[in-house]
Predict the 3D structure of the following.
Amino acid sequence: MGKLIALGLMLLSVVVLQGCSSAQAIKPEDVVVGNTIPEFSVKSLEGKTIDKASLKGQTVVLNFWASWCTPCMSEIPELKELAANSKAKVVGIALDENGLETVKPFVDKHQINYTVAVGTQDMFAQFNGVGIPYTLVLDPSQHIVKIYRGPTNRESLEADLKTIQAQ
């Protein structure tokens, strides 16, 4: 009888602990303006870890894209200019299936001057991503200020950055 009670208590503690951990996770549907971004971790093309903690304290433009995506191509010059002329950190998360094999030569060819990493469809889903391009503008505390589902441009992003600076 004592073993049965001990087993019951163990199972109860597992259920309680699982409930606590899942309550802290951000669900994809919670990735909306005003909330923070989910935990994530990817390696940049330079081998540096990019995660939620590494972006804290910076205004960030987080752009999900792929080399085969025509609307994404129209954003790259805009993002390059933004990266060169603003204090915001621009991070591109490429969703190409062949990963580095495709992304590295593409970045070199297009002389992309901002941080680029290779993500996964699972990671994209965590961010409530459906289609690309998909861009999130984050304030220094990693709260989402703006979400663009579809292409955006430098002028719109600069307006978002001015809003953040005015806060």
Summary: The CA atoms of residues 43 and 49 lie 5 Å apart.
